[in-house]
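[job 0412] stage=fold_complex status=start
inputs:
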Amino acid sequence: MRKVAAALFFFLLFGLLLSCSTIDCPTQTNVMVRYGFYDAAGRVDTLRDTLSIWSKRKNGTDTLLLNRGVNKTALELYISYQHPEDVLFFSVTDTNKVVTLDTVWVKKDDIPHFESVDCAAHFFHTLTAVRSSHHLIDTIAIVNPTVNYDTSGQHLHIRFKAHR
Amino acid sequence: MTRQANISTSASRLIVSLLLLLAPVVVQAQRFLKIERDSVPFFQGFAVSVDLVGAAMMYFGEYGQYEGALRVNLHNQYYPVLEVGYGKADHDDDVVTGLAYKTAAPYFRIGGDVNILKNKHSGNRLYFGLRYAFTSYKVDVSRTMFEDPVWKWDTSFSVKDDPCSQHWAEIVFGLDAKIVGPLHLGWSVRYKMRLSHNDGTLGQTWYVPGYGKQDSNSLGATFNVIVDI
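[job 0412] stage=fold_complex status=done
writing structure:
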């Protein structure tokens, strides 16, 4: 009987030890598209004018993604979880208060990403196509189609027409 | 030439030193693995066991496993073991994350134990062992409808029968105590190491049949009811 009691005691001890489990959700869960600005020679370009970017919500109202950015060489923007194409409006205001508006369309495939039932689900994306109007934007191109938690590289390169 | 001679002398010294260092370990290992010479027959029969921890987890929680084992008793010292089980998880829509996860699949472990008790024929066991384990399973993961935080579009996903698999190894330490007749009770603690895994298309899996939750620690335990046959 003492053997049984000893066995049970040790088992309960180890049971207590094992019951201390942890939840290891990733700390960096922002899934952002990173845009880089480059000139015709492939050098980093600085947009000295004021840049604002917004999109339309499901109900048709505007949602501001970037508010009055100045001296930008790159930026990060949210990407919709599951909408097949994001439509972004780039508004550039120069020092003479002249506003130039361009529209950018970003098509993508959405891939659900699961870590654990305790961690919020996110979506990773594969960019499949990008196009824009050409009032100030000269070209826009995908350089890395994979959008996930990785924050190291850029996904889209934008070349602006001649500007200040 | 001189330099080469010096190098070879140093290498020889190093090898001799290492051999001398290893000698006691080898002797200990030989003692540990040596079968005692006595009148007890080499083949001592079979034992079957069931694990109560996994079954209790299954009954009281949302995941667990039914598991049984067959082991061969060789001279009360070596125990080749086959463990077979059926693991299952059914996590309904999580109140915080809205995620549901479902899987159910069989698994097996194969390996052996060594009884390290001095008196190996007492009917009790204190043992170390190793296991290799494998499972092939499919998972269903779904997320109830939620709103995209920026664009406010309705968002959800559901993936069904996503094929996954995992190979892993376990280091086992445990004890069995003879209770009465052929009946033994015992527990084991296991340190689990993933050898390779295919987590399907979703990134990761949560509960792996036989292995447990991936976001938990690497330790596991069993409480066994064992019957000698």
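[job 0412] summary: The CA atoms of residues 47 and 72 of chain A lie 5 Å apart.
[job 0412] exit 0
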